[in-house]
Design goal:
This protein has helices at 3-29, 122-125, 163-166, and strands spanning 31-35, 50-54, 80-84, 92-100, 104-108, 111-114, 117-118, 143-144, 149-153, 169-170, 174-183, 189-190. With 192 residues, it is an alpha+beta fold. It has a single domain, classed as Umud Fragment, subunit A, CATH 2.10.109.10.
Length: 192
């Protein structure tokens, strides 16, 4: 091989290596794409929708070690979050955050009550009837969310396995906030 070919191979190799490192850094610490696999978040997300999740906002987890970077802000009621399943750490779920650690949750007559007050935040009450199901969502039962945990529900309450069934999501399982629906094209939108 002559020097010119070696130089071109080296330049291409360096460019590809840099691109791979940048892609891994962005995916690990900034944003990651997810596909919606079920109807648990209908009407917000449909089966097959693809979303970008902001990992940086809540403090991205450093791969291979259980340490998080500092958060820009803490999760808030109404956020649509992605988290590792409390039952199967290999699965990621997308649900709406309803209550934070230390708050009391009750589902009564299809309405969510947090600390005794009906939740009136628009994305949560927007024509959604929340069913009483599972061990953590029975009628007239108040549940206190443990410290450093979250209580989440799917927007399609009749067809969602969520905190009503398996309890609370440890905050350490948090992946990030759903920020942008990018596919299909006719449904592109910023997720609020």
């Amino acid at each position: 091989m002559n020097d010119r070919i070696k130089r071109e191979i080296r330049e291409w190799s360096e460019s590809i290596a840099i691109a791979l490192v940048l892609a891994l850094v962005i995916r690990s610490f900034v944003v990651q794409a997810f596909k919606i696999p079920s109807g648990s978040m209908i009407p917000t997300f449909l089966v097959g929708d693809r979303i970008f999740v902001n990992k940086f906002l809540y403090g991205a987890r450093i791969p291979f070690i259980d340490i998080r970077l500092p958060a820009v802000r803490q999760p808030e009621r109404g956020d649509i979050i992605v988290f590792r399943s409390p039952e199967d750490k290999k699965k990621d779920f997308v649900k709406r955050l309803i209550a934070l650690g230390g708050e009391t949750v009750e589902i009564r007559d299809g309405t969510i009550y947090v600390d005794g007050k009906a939740v009136t935040y628009p994305p949560i009450v927007k024509s959604i009837y929340y069913y009483n199901r599972g061990d953590y969502g029975r009628e007239d039962e108040k549940i206190t969310v443990p410290k450093d945990s979250l209580y989440v529900l799917g927007d399609n309450s009749a067809s969602s396995r969520d905190s009503r069934y398996w309890g609370f999501v440890p905050k350490k399982n948090l992946v990030g906030k759903a920020s942008f629906l990018y596919w299909p094209i006719h449904r592109i939108k910023v997720i609020s």
